[in-house]
Amino acid sequence: MARYTGPKARRDRRAGVMLSSMRKNPLERKPYPPGEHGRGRQRQTEYGMRLLEKQKARWYYGVSEKQFRGAYDKATRMSGVSGENLLRLMELRVDNVVFRMGFATSRPQARQLVVHGHFYLNGRKHNIPSAIMGTGDVLTVKEKSRSLEPIQEAVENVVAVPAWLEADHDNFTGRLLHSPERGEIDTPVEEQLIIEFYSR
Asked: In this structure, are residues 140 and 168 in contact, taking their beta carbons and an 8 Å threshold?
């Protein structure tokens, strides 16, 4: 199975952090892993800790193992810190940028909107959610798509847009100002453990 489609609450409890955009936090009611032995689990091995960090990052961005491994391979070939490069590549995906700009309420919804062709990238129709955006790239919601209920709801409820992005919700457009630094990425993972997992 390429992408996790099971219960989000169960997955979040397994990860120990909120990875989904659910309104209620399942960890408040059951702050332990799911399953029969969830409360009495022993300490994880080093391999298990690294595997869980990798899975948390995958679940957070909603990507398949093949996509995530490809991003890791690309990150290690880039200059700089590999772990930060990996998170940066995940943040610069079109579907994530749509979500971060406030044109979707979740990453799965952003991915669906992109696949269905509701956005222009630099003035051209774009439907590939995994494409990596570059500095100065402009995303625009199609004229006919601006009245869609999911997009309207997302724009009305947007809280904040990251500093590395610029979004004009009145004109349904946004721009990538620069690649995000590690301090501007709030992904709840330890990226070094992910690098250690793949380089073992």
From this structure: no
Two structure tokens written together for 54: 């990798």
Q: What residues are paired with 156 via a beta bridge?
A: none
Task: Return per-residue pLDDT of the chain as tens, 200 residues.
Answer: 456 666 666 555 665 565 666 556 555 566 556 665 556 566 778 898 898 889 889 888 989 999 999 999 999 999 999 999 999 999 999 999 999 999 999 898 999 999 999 999 999 999 999 999 999 999 999 999 999 999 999 999 888 899 999 999 999 999 999 999 999 998 888 999 999 999 88
Question: Of 103, 85, 91, nearest to 63 (Cα)?
Answer: 91
Work out whether strand 173-176 and strand 138-141 pair parallel, antiparallel, or are unpaired. Answer: antiparallel
Q: DSSP label at 163?
A: T
Site of tokens 């990238």: 121
CB count within 10 Å of CB 53 equals 21
Residues 6+ apart with CB under 8 A from 176: 92, 97, 133, 134, 135, 136, 137, 138, 164, 165, 166
Instruction: Please choose, from the candidates 48, 18, 16, the residue with its C-alpha nearest in 3D space to the C-alpha of residue 32.
Output: 16
| Order of all β-strands in the sheet with 119-121 | 124-126, 119-121, 138-141, 173-176, 165-168
Cβ(153)–Cβ(144) below 8 Å: no
Phi first, then psi: what are they for 35, rounded to 5°?
105, 165
